[in-house]
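Pilot study result, target chain (696 residues):
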Amino acid sequence: MALSPAKITPPKVKGEQEDQLFRLLRQLDIAPDASQRVTAEAIGVSLGRLNALLKQATDTGLVHIKDRNGPDKRARFAYTLTARGAAEKRRLTDDFLARKFAEYDALHAELTGNASGLTPIKHRTHPMENNLAPIPELYVSYESAQKLKVDAGNLVSLDLTPRQICDLELLMNGGFNPLKGFLTEEDYNGVVENMRLADGTLWPMPINLDVSEDFAASLELGQDIALRDQEGVILGTMTVTDRWEPNKALEAEKVFGADDDAHPAVNYLHNQAGKIYLGGPITGIQQPVHYDFRARRDTPNELRAYFRKMGWRKVVAFQTRNPLHRAHQELTFRAAKEAQANLLIHPVVGLTKPGDVDHFTRVRCYEAVLDKYPASTTSMSLLNLAMRMAGPREAVWHGLIRANHGCTHFIVGRDHAGPGKNSAGEDFYGPYDAQELYRANQSEIGCEMVDFKHMVYVQERAQYEPNDEIADRDNVTILNISGTELRRRLAEGLEIPEWFSFPEVVKELRRTKPPRSKQGFTVFFTGFSGSGKSTIANALMVKLMEMGGRPVTLLDGDIVRKNLSSELGFSKEHRDLNIRRIGYVASEITKNGGIAICAPIAPYATTRRAVREDVEAFGAFIEVHVATSIEECERRDRKGLYKLAREGKIKEFTGISDPYDVPVNPELSVETENVDVDNCAHQVILKLESMGLIAG
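Predicted structure:
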């Protein structure tokens, strides 16, 4: 079902009428229970004009009026701003401020002959002068929020995904300023094409509410919807002004540089995100609840208030999604010293790249390093951002976000926010592409770039130095440990030298990442029905149980169908859901140090990749392709399924009437046609030994 592009524009009034409506909405938000006479005096209009404004506001859905039964006959009504009214109030506030700035600028020029140099908050021509002033948020007042919660209970609701919750939080608290909600179609097109909103403001990343076709079709344009977290708590409301089906291939090319599923954000775009985008203003009711590290979580305005209190005029931010080691500590300390600024360690604790160290471990590592910095010069705050790993565009985006948080400088690294290799085995972005794009837009971003310096350890001088500043490099010993080498040492329980990392950090990493031979992992067999998956999986289970040391669980396709997915059919949707359930159980087993052996058909590469990402958040994932030909499987046909499929009695049967995506790069491929089961299972054991997952 395709939805044609559609848009509504909220009603507007001009000039003095617009100012009056702005003053009315602001007054009703401040004093919703005041009498009409008090309200009229507060906004400077007659009672007759007030009644006309109230009628206009109620007719256009901005204000809801209720009768009151109180002793004061002059206060017979109570006024509540609707979600649309709150959004319109914010728009009118921006317009009002823009006009007043323009009037002041004209008067200043008339009196002095020069422009005032002042600009509205939403423009970024002089951002560093105002890095400590409060920025706009999308939350309504506490009193209005309580009323909106009740009203929102009657609205159509959308339960947000974890990524959408991250986006909503930063929209509401001003982290995504100047955005007032999820992008309209016009803004989205501008962002995708040239990193600009429709009004010309720099913004590099599409922030849209992606939903299913069925949900989008159930909405009317102009309708308010309630946005809830995954437990059903209402976080805010949204007025749906735009609804369209985007060209996701174009979005992938423009934003991420290639329409390549090897990029995690492109994979999400095509295989997880909803098909339809919604846009419209947001009204914030309450922040998402975080139970972890609550004292470390700050909104942009809370950080700005902290910087004002501490007297920090210059602040350099360090973006990270990895643990901090000695080279990072030296880098950040030097960056702050060169900029003559204080330092904010600002790690991302939302969604990062699949396979990254979990944020609980990382934050404990950061806290262990904080006292290595000079006292009162460094602070840490957690950023609940869903990263896109978009390289150059992401660097610009990160800079805008840090500017909103009150930072004046931002460290941009080599291959900043790069996702790794593409399908051809090459880096998605050049090592300095991010720095070049950031530098080209720096004046608008509002955060001065600090180049990331590659720090290496000079053994003779027992200190870290920038690699490109070592004049006597031929006469000294330069040491460095790559991320790959660090992971290998952790996996194999090898020594990690103190010159590389702090003992406290290594201790935390070892707690979370024990040697590979003690970690949980998943072996995932895939192949046609009758290929021998279950037989090999059973043999492998017995061999691993014979070795002992870790619990072993077999998740065979037929057994799972009986006990976990008995209500599912065999449509593509139901088969995908069955595999995702298997993946979820396997990830929980892996997380808790056990061994999961899965043996479903799993015909679709996209679903297998999703399961891999679920498991690899906690341990190793070994895909084993049981490469028995379809002809041999049909010859065996012990269950008679192929015969029924050929007769048309079983629809969508893998290999006959439904496709099978042959694994491209499995960890292991085994043949069963002329090889006995024990040998196949032994091949898997040897693979596990070579990967260090079981002791040799």
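One observation from the pilot: The mean pLDDT is 87. A full batch analysis is planned for the follow-on phase.
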